[in-house]
Structure formats: structure tokens, C-alpha cells
Amino acid sequence: MSKEGCLIVISGPSGTGKGTVCNALLDRHAEIAYSISATTRLPRSGEKDGVNYYFLTKPVFEKMIRDGELLEWAEVYKNYYGTPLKKIQERLTAGQDILLEIDPQGAMNVKEKFPDGIYIYILPPSMAELEQRIRGRGTDSEESICCRLRAAADEIAAADHYQYVVVNDAVPRAVSKINAILMAEHCRADRNLTFIHSLSRQERK
Ligand code: ADP
Ligand code: 5GP
Fold it and tell me: Is the C or the N end of the chain the one with fewer CB within 10 Å?
């Protein structure tokens, strides 16, 4: 079936398990590319430039903004984060899917430009579990943990701006739900117009 490329946007409070769920999803879907964001934050232990993020200095990030190289950008937890535009354009033009894992400010800016995207918000099973996950990750300072927890409550209240919410109680279950969402979205008639029209034009033998 001919298919048009989908822009998939995933957000959720820090520590809810977005990265874990997205990695598991990408492992099962080699056909979905991941949009590597640019950021001015420092790499956490184990993170690699060009794999997890493009780790940039503030002047370089600001030059990308001036040169129009970012689809969107936002200041999150005192650092800049942004989505490079070129890869998104290339993938969608080629009819291929691309996944963005970005914060709600960025997601809503993208939604204005790509209203046909698939917008999914990942919720924690409870706020206590969210705190436990952030602390358990062991990558953030106490100041950063408090900042992320304060932001989480407000952020979650805005989850109704997304089309779908998925509770990450267990990773395989969350991944299955996202799989189901993607499968249904790919079956939408308005995402398959080229194929529908090509079939209806085929002559009977
Ligand atoms: P985020 O990308 O949303 O900031 P991470 O993917 O880094 O979150 O996950 C935060 C922590 O929670 C990690 O230590 C991860 O292993 C753990 N985690 C993720 N999903 C689950 C889950 N369903 N149950 C228990 N722990 C989880
Ligand atoms: P972290 O520092 O934990 O990797 O990410 C912090 C927050 O920044 C998360 O909410 C994450 O979704 C968001 N983020 C990551 N990349 C981007 C991006 O390109 N644009 C925006 N707006 N947010 C991003």
C-alpha cells in the first residue's frame, strides 16, 4: 500500500520514560527515523553527540535559529532544545515516518505547521512513580530534579492538547499501545489517497 510519511510527536514529563519507550519502539520499527535534536545542555554520562543529541554551544545554537535551520526550538529547564528542519523535510518528502521526542511548547509549535502529525503524550502511572524514576535514573542534580518535578504538574495538565495519551506503566504495554495508534493512523483513508486513486484508475483485465 502506498503510504504517506507521518510526523510522530511524543512528549511527556521528564522521567516518565519517553526515551525508554521511544528506543523500544524504534527497535521494532526500523522504518521510523528518529529526529536528533540540537541542545545546549551538557551530555549526561553515556550520551553521544550525533546519537542522543547534537550538543552545541549557545552561539552555535543561536546561529541555527537565525539561519532558519530549526523547525522549532524552546528553552526547557534553562537550556535550549530545537528540531533540525532538514531531516524532517527529507523524510516526509520521501514518504517515510519520523519521530520527534520534544517538549509540549515545541510540540504545539510543530502542530501549527504540521496539523496532520500524530501527537502522543506519555503519562506516568502516578506522580510518586515519576519522582522515583527521575531519582532512580541518577543523572540529574537535586536542583534539576526539583525543577523537573515542579514543571511536571503544569505540563501534565496540558496533555489534552494531544490526540492520544499513553500511560507508561510497563514499557511493553506502552509500546503496544503506540503501535496500535500508529497502525490505525496509517490506515486512515486520508493518509492513503494516492493509493486509493491509483487503484480506482486501474483498468479491469
Ligand atoms: P524520559 O526520557 O521521559 O526523561 P527515561 O526514559 O530516561 O525518561 O526514563 C526514566 C527512568 O525511568 C529510567 O531509569 C528508566 O529506566 C525508567 N523507566 C522507564 N519506563 C519505565 C517503566 N515503565 N517502569 C519502570 N521504570 C521505567
Ligand atoms: P532531557 O534534557 O531530559 O533530554 O530533555 C528535556 C526536555 O527537552 C524533554 O521534555 C524533551 O522532550 C525536550 N526536548 C528534547 N529535544 C527537544 C527539541 O528538539 N525541541 C523541544 N522543544 N524540546 C525538546
Answer: C
- Find out whether 178 and 28 touch, Cβ atoms under 8 Å: no
Q: Which ligand is nearest to the CA of 108?
A: 2
CA distance 65 to 42: 19
In this predicted model, what pLDDT tens digit does every residue of 101-142 receive, in sequence order? 999 999 999 999 999 999 999 999 999 999 999 999 888 889
Which uninterrupted H or E stretch holds 186? helix 171-186
How far does the centroid of ligand 2 lie from the alpha carbon of residue 76, in Å?
A: 7
- DSSP-based three-state secondary structure for 46: coil
Domains of the chain: 7-35+96-201 (3.40.50.300)
- With a threshold of 0.85, does the pTM exceed it? yes
User: Rounded to an integer, what distance in angstroms lies between the CA atom of residue 77 and that of residue 151?
Assistant: 9
What radius of gyration do the chain's Cα atoms show?
A: 18
Question: Cα-Cα-Cα-Cα dihedral of 98, 104, 105, 106, to 10°?
Answer: -10
β-sheet bridge partners, residue 165: 121
**Using a 6 Å cutoff on CB, does residue 137 contact ligand 1?**
yes
